[in-house]
């Protein structure tokens, strides 16, 4: 079967600003019910939601395929990862977010102290098109498990996938609309930012993240941003080169390179570089690209992305880089065949800017430390991979890489691990989705102290005794000054 993929023809309603606000108002009602449930009840609903998605996933997979052009197996994998996260969030919210006591410390020994993580209310989620189920689920699942209602604006390229998710929730017949979708483009996203949501989770480009942040700043609406990356893969001289090249091929070319934490740069130690490039070449040269069922990756989902890829390849070649697989002729919109570029100047756009296509740059380095240094020179800082047989080198790289996620001897290792927080630094964004940090990201932290007995020292009073101040002075100098 050849898929009828045409984002231009994917039509969905574009709600007015008033309609977006009305959705948020409905969400606020839903949040009252949902937030008041205990963790066990919410877990029940979310696991039911999970089962519903899994049982009826065939139509979701078809929708993802139609809207993005990715192969069916990739769509299936994406849905599987999404329900894995939904499951983790549902099952771990109580453990992570239930009230916990903390030691009050010496000065406040007469108090019981505790921390509560309360729902924020309504979370707005603005999603991308490259993984239209998995990526937003990283916010939806964790926000809902933390007791919030969600209004989700999927990318304008994947509105039906977004609507499918809200319909799946609605089919559970929950008494309130805990998950709703509003479709439309950036204007609708902007309306969502202005709608009074209590938190905004954004995934997309850094440039749009800045616009979202500026609008959210008007109302001090907190945001979490996943803004893409320029992830490096480092190959040490001790690495298993077969494994490194095989994973690199997947990390760079999988999903047509349209993966925020995909491999875009490879730094390989000089002495093994030729051998590594030979193996990588053999892994990517004959990949099947297209819309056929057996394609290994599909077309570029965002039409304008083709021009970005072409411009970057052109720049790399003009500045002395060499194409060892493909070249400018590989860009044949709406497809891009695999491109491997060698020895590309570090300040060219192919190395410095996000490509988001099935291309990868391989540059040689003296040693792993130089690889780390070059990896860290990027304005982005989402993820990185390192291939080495040395445990010490792996540890050093994991410590020193300026990124949010590190994978050793594989790629994208974090993706299916619900317990691992995900997010970046620099232009890749801030805040975390997934894991305990992801649950807390969508919670309001409240600190509570309860006085259990009168303080031995009367310091919180307008009528302090000289004796109590003298004891405080003694504490300051003798205990803290030790
Ligand atoms: O992103 P945008 P696009 C990168 C990738 C790609 C580039 C552009 O490099 O080339 O981003 O892709 C909504 N207020 N990534 O154009 O514009 C928009 O409707 C509020 C990285 O798709 O960032 C969509 O839902 N919302 C990436 C979402 O923002 C606005 C995933 C993302 O759109 C808005 C995808 C506005 N003013 C692309 N303008 C990743 N981080 O994984 C747009 N939107």
TrEMBL record:
GO molecular function, one term: aldehyde dehydrogenase (NAD+) activity
Organism: Rhodococcoides corynebacterioides
Top-level taxon of origin: Bacteria
Pfam family, any one: Aldedh
Domain Aldehyde dehydrogenase: residue ranges: 15-448
Identification of the protein by name: Aldehyde dehydrogenase
Keyword terms: Oxidoreductase
Oxidoreductase among keywords: yes
Cited CDD domains: ALDH_DDALDH
SUPFAM superfamilies from the UniProt entry: ALDH-like
InterPro entries: Ald_DH/histidinol_DH, Ald_DH_C, Ald_DH_N, Aldehyde_DH_dom, Aldehyde_DH_NAD(P)
Membership in a protein family: Belongs to the aldehyde dehydrogenase family.
């Amino acid at each position: 079967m050849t898929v009828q993929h045409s984002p231009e023809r994917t039509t969905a309603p574009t709600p007015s600003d008033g309609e977006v606000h009305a959705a948020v108002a409905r969400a606020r009602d839903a949040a009252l019910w949902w937030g008041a449930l205990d963790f066990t009840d919410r877990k029940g609903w979310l696991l039911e939601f999970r089962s519903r998605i899994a049982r009826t996933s065939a139509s979701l997979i078809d929708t993802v395929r139609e809207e993005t052009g990715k192969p069916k197996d990739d769509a299936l994998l994406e849905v599987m990862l999404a329900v894995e996260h939904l499951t983790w969030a549902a099952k771990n919210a109580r453990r992570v977010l239930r009230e916990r006591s903390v030691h009050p410390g010496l000065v406040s020994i007469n108090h019981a102290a505790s921390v509560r993580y309360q729902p924020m209310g309504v979370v707005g989620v603005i999603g991308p098109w490259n993984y239209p189920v998995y990526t937003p689920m990283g916010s939806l699942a964790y926000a809902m498990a933390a007791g919030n209602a969600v209004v989700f604006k999927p990318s304008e390229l994947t509105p039906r996938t977004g609507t499918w998710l809200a319909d799946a929730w609605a089919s559970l017949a929950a008494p309130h609309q805990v998950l709703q979708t509003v479709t439309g483009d950036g204007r609708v996203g902007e309306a969502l930012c202005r709608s009074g949501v209590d938190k905004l989770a954004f995934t997309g480009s850094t440039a749009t993240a800045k616009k979202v942040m500026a609008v959210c700043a008007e109302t001090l609406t907190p945001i979490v941003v996943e803004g893409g990356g320029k992830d490096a893969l480092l190959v040490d001289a001790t690495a298993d080169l077969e494994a490194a090249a095989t994973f690199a091929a997947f990390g760079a070319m999988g999903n047509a390179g349209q993966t925020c934490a995909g491999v875009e740069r490879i730094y390989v130690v000089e002495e093994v570089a030729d051998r590594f490039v030979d193996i990588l070449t053999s892994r990517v040269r004959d990949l099947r690209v297209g819309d056929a069922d057996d394609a290994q990756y599909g077309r570029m989902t965002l039409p304008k992305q083709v021009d970005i890829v072409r411009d970057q390849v052109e720049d790399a070649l003009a500045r002395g880089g060499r194409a060892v697989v493909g070249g400018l002729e590989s860009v044949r919109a709406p497809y891009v065949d695999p491109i491997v570029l060698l020895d590309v100047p570090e300040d060219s756009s192919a190395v410095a800017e996000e490509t988001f296509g099935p291309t990868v740059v391989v540059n040689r380095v003296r040693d792993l430390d130089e690889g780390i240094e070059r990896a860290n020179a990027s304005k982005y800082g989402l993820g990185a991979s390192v291939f080495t047989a040395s445990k010490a080198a792996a540890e050093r790289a994991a410590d020193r890489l300026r990124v949010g996620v590190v994978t050793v001897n594989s790629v994208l290792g974090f993706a299916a691990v619900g317990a691992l927080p995900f997010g970046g630094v620099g232009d890749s964004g801030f805040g975390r989705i997934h894991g305990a940090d992801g649950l807390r990201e969508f919670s309001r932290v409240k600190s509570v102290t309860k006085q259990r007995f009168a303080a031995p020292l009367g310091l919180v009073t307008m009528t302090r005794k000289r004796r109590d101040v003298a004891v405080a002075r003694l504490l300051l100098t003798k205990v803290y000054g030790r």
